Amino acid sequence: MDIFLHLLRSKGFKLTPQRRAVVAALQTCAPFPTAQDIYRHVKETAPDVSLDTVYRNLTLLCRLGVVSQVNLPGGSAFEIVDGHHHHHLICLSCGQAECIDYCPVIPHDLAQAKERGFTVVSHSLEFYGYCRTCRSAG
Ligand SMILES: [Zn+2]
Ligand SMILES: [Zn+2]
Ligand SMILES: [Zn+2]
Predict the structure, then answer these.
(1) Using one digit for the tens of pLDDT, what is the confidence trace for 101-118?
(2) Which ligand has the nearest atom to the CA of 124?
(3) Cα of 77 to ligand 2 centre, how many Å?
(4) What is the pTM of this model?
């Protein structure tokens, strides 16, 4: 929780009770909860929270680089990244995701973004295939 507190404060954001609840849900529902999973969990402690608020807070945390969005076959999921940027292997059969410490993208080398005057703040990249368990079952 401390890293969030520091980060939000350093960027001029407050750690509101709702934000705190979203972060707690991310930690409890790990790995890879969807926005709906987080919403269900947040509602237990903050019944008046809306799905919209959960989305807004997730977007903010993604923008700050502490949470990243992972595109699973069943929809978007989220994970806490703690500043360690990485990518995922996603199984098309069971839908499980594994983190891999690899990134082929160097954002400041994206010439086309630069030409367009576009500032890149994040990117996502997933590798789709079949995990060891599904391969041996198939
Ligand atoms: Zn699998
Ligand atoms: Zn990961
Ligand atoms: Zn990357």
Answers:
(1) 999 988 777 889 989 999
(2) 3
(3) 10
(4) 0.82
